[in-house]
Amino acid sequence: MPSRPRSQAQDPDEAARAARAEWRSRQLLDAAARLMERDGFHGVSMQALAEEASVSVGLIYRYFGGKDDLLLAVIVDVLEAFATRVPSAVEEAGNDPVERIAAAFRAYCDVIDEHRHAAVLTYRESRTLGSEGRNKIKSMEIDTSEPLRAAIRDGASSGLLIAVDTELVAHDLLLMAHGWALKHWYLEQTLRFDDYVTKQTALVLNAIVEPQHRPHYRHLLATH
Amino acid sequence: MPSRPRSQAQDPDEAARAARAEWRSRQLLDAAARLMERDGFHGVSMQALAEEASVSVGLIYRYFGGKDDLLLAVIVDVLEAFATRVPSAVEEAGNDPVERIAAAFRAYCDVIDEHRHAAVLTYRESRTLGSEGRNKIKSMEIDTSEPLRAAIRDGASSGLLIAVDTELVAHDLLLMAHGWALKHWYLEQTLRFDDYVTKQTALVLNAIVEPQHRPHYRHLLATH
Amino acid sequence: MPSRPRSQAQDPDEAARAARAEWRSRQLLDAAARLMERDGFHGVSMQALAEEASVSVGLIYRYFGGKDDLLLAVIVDVLEAFATRVPSAVEEAGNDPVERIAAAFRAYCDVIDEHRHAAVLTYRESRTLGSEGRNKIKSMEIDTSEPLRAAIRDGASSGLLIAVDTELVAHDLLLMAHGWALKHWYLEQTLRFDDYVTKQTALVLNAIVEPQHRPHYRHLLATH
Amino acid sequence: MPSRPRSQAQDPDEAARAARAEWRSRQLLDAAARLMERDGFHGVSMQALAEEASVSVGLIYRYFGGKDDLLLAVIVDVLEAFATRVPSAVEEAGNDPVERIAAAFRAYCDVIDEHRHAAVLTYRESRTLGSEGRNKIKSMEIDTSEPLRAAIRDGASSGLLIAVDTELVAHDLLLMAHGWALKHWYLEQTLRFDDYVTKQTALVLNAIVEPQHRPHYRHLLATH
DNA sequence: TATGAATGAGGCTTCATTCAT
DNA sequence: GATGAATGAAGCCTCATTCAT
């Protein structure tokens, strides 16, 4: 509780300031994600960013350490959304491992669809970051995908799934989720977001659910 | 008879020149792919590129129009490898659609593993290209993946596969093939290349082959 | 009332900014003219220009689009001086066509002497400009010399001048005016600026004024 | 007589070689003048020059010391034409100073019209040359214009001309001659070369010939 | 003589970052 | 907090010149 020690008389002020800072950060993060997705990290200048966010160049440096830092923040922003949304989605799905896998996958896809601009940056611009940032991202990626891997492990050990390589299946699901953003220009020609998720879920579960349990997951295996 | 000698006497000269040019292009393309994969397109300076390839900066411009052009060439180089290798692999696989799918996927993976440096650039740096280059790549991607889609269509119409969305399955297979390069830093911890291909093949076929035909493809569905 | 204050309260700010910009432009234009006359357009690097103007390289690009643009601006600067000074000089000379011709010529020479550095650029570096810039200059040249041509036409139609080719005489006068800058290294050995103008005026008028009217223009025809 | 000592048996060889060298120089000089007039000295690369002259880059360096040297040679080429053609034209004009002035002017104009490409370079690119080359040109300019100045001085001392500043009139005539090349883009709209020379001759002579002698030079003073 | 592949210094330009206001 | 003018390092590219063949 680091906020308490601060004097109470200043709380209102501080709260207002914090709110303002929060608002500014969000404003900048969104502008950055939008522009970077369109033009790539290096295609966006700080001046362009300032204009897009309707602030001055100088102000950006009050909220972020620099351009690299901003990129990292944009990426972390998405990863934090994963960290928030995936576990709760898994929880809500109940105790069935297969349901949890499906829920996790859908949650991933939801976040990516909402942050389509920023999601691709993980793949595209990670080389831009220094090793420090890269390591942070790598470990966050691993952390945020843990619920998914746990569900797969549970499914396997409980006999609901055939013997599978947990890491590989998790990797595939994450790849498919990101695929929606990476190849959006192509996929959007034939699929709506919801169809993409439903079909991919069915495809993967069809591959890994024990045949004898499939009837039970008819609602996940059917695609229409 | 000045024209006769020309067609033969000068051929050696021209041939030698062409060979040298070919050699230089390859040298530069390889150096570019290597460096760009490590540091990203924007992280590589022409100076650094020249040093890596052991030539002078100026010489690069004799073979490529500029940095963008070089990036495009690197990417096209991989796509051309797809265009060469995938169809022949499919052909050699015989007439069975399932075998053809597996062969196509393996060929994709082979090329990507051989060009791991360059393969990721398609995903990472496509925004860097102008729309002209981007369109060229898009159409090459679609062209080179046609054999795969054809095999999937054949499999579906012949009843070997369950009803699937051809585009989506093709997209998934391509994504998985590229996944080996994109997440190589992570995957190599637990998998060798051959295992990756074998397991992914099994996973996908398990999802799409009609249950009654699975026994026939035991060699593709088993992972060890 | 946010709009009212703006129109007045912010004027000072805007005015100050505009004044600063004006000052910078002049500073750069002068430095550019000075250097380019000495070393030629291509002999002047942006680095050298920045040093001469005591600013950083980058700042030049805030005020001018690039090196070409700067050259164009320098040239246009002289042409604008013509456009301002020649007509008023002609006006002040009264209604006599011959007086107006003499006044126009002197005004041309004055401007060229004041911008001796820049004046030669019109002749020397026009090929450097793109066709767009070249056309702009051509049309400004024609526009700014119109008062002179008009005076010549008036003189001819009123019988004060012998029959002359208006275009040619105008061309000659402009050439002579620029000659002071073009061959300054040679002319300054024997002539002061004022003598140059006086003598050239006498020479030309002697060639074109109707003999019977010459006595009336004794003050222009005598050279000492 | 440095050519004699050389063995006589080799003379044919040497002659052939010299002829070839002469031909090459001419070929290069012409190509250079052509290109430089169109694109300016700095707008022409040695590669472009080689192509225009249908030789290799390397060969240019066998005939000229470098690019600057070539520019100097192009300019000197024109000045040498002046040195050759003007005196003989003056000679042929007889002893009358006025006729000699007119002949000199026409000779100047002829050479300039024939070398229109190169003639402008004297004005445009002289700053490009080092001081050595510039001095050479300056002194050649002064030398080649001496016949003109001599004729003017003669005319003045013999009473055929009114009192004039010899240097200035010579300067004007040279300027007018070059004017044909400098403003060719504009003048060609209304004048043919011959008209230009005739009219300018008439204009200048009208300004400097003693009125009482004018009838005698009716053929030079009339413009049609 | 003649070629043209190769070099590399130097130029123009961009843009992340700073700092006085 | 906020601005934006100013900085200057670093990048891409050109092109005069050389030299092995």
UniProtKB/TrEMBL annotation, chains A, B, C, D:
It comes from the Bacteria. Keywords: DNA-binding, Transcription, Transcription regulation. Residues 22-82 form the HTH tetR-type domain. Residues 45-64 bind DNA. Transmembrane segments: none annotated. It comes from Halopolyspora algeriensis. The keyword Transcription regulation applies. GO terms for molecular function: DNA-binding transcription factor activity; transcription cis-regulatory region binding. The keyword Nucleus does not apply. This is TetR family transcriptional regulator.
